[in-house]
Amino acid sequence: MEFHTAGVIGGGAWGTALAQSAAAAGLAVVLQAREPEVVESIRTTRINEAYLPGVELDSAISVTTDLGDLADCDLILAVPPAQHMRATLSAFAPHTREGLPIVLCSKGVERGSLKLMRDVLAETIPHAVPAVLSGPSFAAEVARGLPSAVTLACEDLGMAEALATALSGPVFRPYIADDLIGAETGGALKNVLAIACGIVEGRALGRSAHAAVITRGFAEIQRVAVALGGRVETVAGLCGLGDLVLTCSSPQSRNMSLGLALGQGQTVEQALAGKRSVAEGYESAPAVRELARKLGVETPICEAVAAVLAGETSVDAAIEDLLTRPLKPERE
């Protein structure tokens, strides 16, 4: 199975970076952006000034606002914000065909339905072949051609291998898996946990506390993944632990930078003001909290972040609540 053309839905930083990476892998790429100014910027300067300034895009990338222009592509990378995935896929559905591989590249839990993106795809384009791409990868680094490795999950391992082969390049390395639930769960929860790590950094609580949040946060990812039907070994890889470590370790992460601002005393409104791209953790935190409660799974760090973002508690009160939880065996 060979792929020659890729359509990328979503002209934000990550969508643009994936378009650049796919072009570097030898694919002809059609990048769809919702904003006409993004399309105009790329067409005239070859740079997405709004979301990925300073990176000149490959000449193999064409750009459009029309989803219909992606109809003939061999594979699709779907990269709208998670909370807009359903509407975007519904709009794209008339332009699809039986067996079209759609690689889900957005991380989050849908508010209201509490569904992962694979479930959203199944409900909007049921005849597509679903796949998930997730892992430790900052958009600016991928776009500039710095080395990165990700998980590419598809239930059909033959399709996963074909997609990985098509998307891999000199410095972009996909590892294949067949556990879509595990691949998605790691990406969805790590954004919320990165806000917690940002708060720790902003409050100057130290590297020990930072390491504790990452480790106990990873335990929360494992519990939710298993409860949903995913596997521990999947989230122990790039799409879970790897992505968690990256996102929790650099203010380059929008989620960690949001937490950093909150830890330094800003309100949620102040921390979000003037941001063109909203942190996915902010959008997903309420859904993650509700999903964990529905599953009967304890996620105290995610719970604390959701409560802070909703204005239900203060940063200091949330920290105190976590530090005064009953002691128990580490693996529980």
Structural classification? alpha/beta
What's the shape?
globular
Termini separation (Å)? Answer: 44 Å
Radius of gyration: 19 Å
| Order of neighbouring strands in the sheet with most strands | 3-2-1-4-5-6-7-8
Q: Number of DSSP strands?
A: 8
Summarize this structure briefly.
49% of the residues lie in helices and 12% in strands. It is an alpha/beta fold and 332 residues long. Helix 4 links the parallel strand 5 and strand 6.
Description:
The protein has 332 residues and is of the alpha/beta class. It is globular and about 55 Å long. The protein is 49% helix and 12% strand. An eight-stranded mixed beta sheet has the order 3-2-1-4-5-6-7-8, sandwiched between helices. The chain starts with a strand and ends in a 9-residue tail after the last helix. Strand 5, helix 4 and strand 6 form a beta-alpha-beta unit.
Question: Keywords for this structure?
Answer:
single chain; 332 residues; alpha/beta; 8-stranded mixed beta sheet; 8 strands; 49% helix; 12% strand; globular
Topology:
Blueprint: E1 5-9, H1 13-24, E2 28-32, H2 36-45, E3 61-64, E4 75-78, H3 85-92, E5 101-104, H4 117-124, E6 129-134, H5 139-143, E7 148-153, H6 157-167, E8 172-177, H7 180-202, H8 207-228, H9 232-235, H10 238-247, H11 254-263, H12 268-272, H13 280-295, H14 300-309, H15 315-323
Parallel strand pairs: 1-2, 1-4, 2-3, 4-5, 5-6, 7-8
Antiparallel strand pairs: 6-7
Helix pairs in contact: 3-4, 7-8, 7-10, 7-11, 7-13, 7-14, 13-14, 14-15
